[in-house]
Amino acid sequence: MSEILSREYLLLVQEAFEHSNTAIIQEQVQELHYADIAALVYELEDEQADFLLRSLDTEIASEVISELEEEVRKHFLKNLPYEKLAEYIDLMDSDDAVDILKEQPIQIREQVIATLKDRDKAKDIIYLLPYDEDTAGGLMAKELIKANINWTVKQCIEEIRRQAEKVEKIYSIYVVDNNGILKGRVSLKKIILSADDTLIADIYEDEELIFVETYKEQEEVVTLMRKYDLESIPVVNVQGKLLGRITIDDVVDVMQEHAEAERQAMSGLSSNVEEDDTIWTSVKARLPWLVVGMVGGMLAASVTNMLGQPVILLVSVLANFTTLIAGTGGNVGVQSSSIILQSLANKSVFELGTLERLFKVLIIAVLNGLILSAFVLGVCLLFGYDAKVAFVVAIALFSVILLASLMGTITPLVLDRFGINPALAAGPFITTANDLIGLTVYFLIARLIYQI
Predict the structure, then answer these.
(1) Among 69, 161, 247, 260, fewest CB within 10 Å belongs to which?
(2) Mean pLDDT across 349-354
(3) What is the CATH number of the domain that holds 121?
């Protein structure tokens, strides 16, 4: 948020609404950045937000609408005449326009496209509509600057001036042949410094050209742009023909969505929730994994009752270490799964195979287990615990670390293989499962050593 957008500013706007002082609303809000206006919309009542958006200049309103979350945007556009929506769409980049039109009923969608004043924009939207939103084709915008390889610099500059009217940000000028096949890119610096009669063919760069096909998943687009530090990436079809580009702002949105989804999953939330959602929405999102945790706790209590009760009755001091065993298993499991999640999110051609991963995890677990179990054994003996108790705790701790490490590694890999969000493994599932495994192993080892 900008410095001007504060709690006091919000109260000022709300007070203006209460007194029907529309002049203050229109004058002051127009001065805000469109992202700040979008943030302000979330804080207002529905009627106030609707009035605010309708009172904005059309160009500013189109930017704000593009910035809004889908549910808020759908609510505002629900009763908006299609002619007014067409005015907004005319001012948006083609990728944003397609995202919004896909949210509308087919009839409204067709009416808007037929009403658009910019017929080139209408053609671009029709071209982009069939692409899945999770692919490069769904992310790309048709607005870009391209130059023919046979042009001179003078021709290129004239074309840049013509094309730039519809392109808000110029990152690169893409070079194509007579068939529209992408050949490379040329920098503005080279164009400015070259003589008018210089051919583009003599100054364009074709080495290490990074591009992406329309069918590629958006995760691959994110990986490429992050790896090569790109501000934009050209999109081609299977024949190599230049179709559009994906800019960094679209990729940042995808990264934020993925990070939010993983955070929700790791927190044990079954759906996307915000602080200002209704109580019932929050309850529904939190309850499923809380039930899973409760069931796991009940199973752990059953394990303690069946396996642990005879041991604890005979050697009551063993009860003191149950939280140590369960807690360590949960922590180790979450650590292991988090590392696997990181590698899955940043896949590399040099990544280890499954067997190599498991072997590496096993070696690390053995080393960690030996160090921690030796430490616990020494502390127990130092504080005067019985030797049998010390060995039970140490051996159980070593075993739990091994099992928790393997489970924390295997579970995300299995979930990823079956197309399930592997972040689910790093939350309540791993913690609850390892608590159960830890207590089972602990009491079985105790019964074995004490021959109960």
Answers:
(1) 161
(2) 57
(3) 1.25.60.10
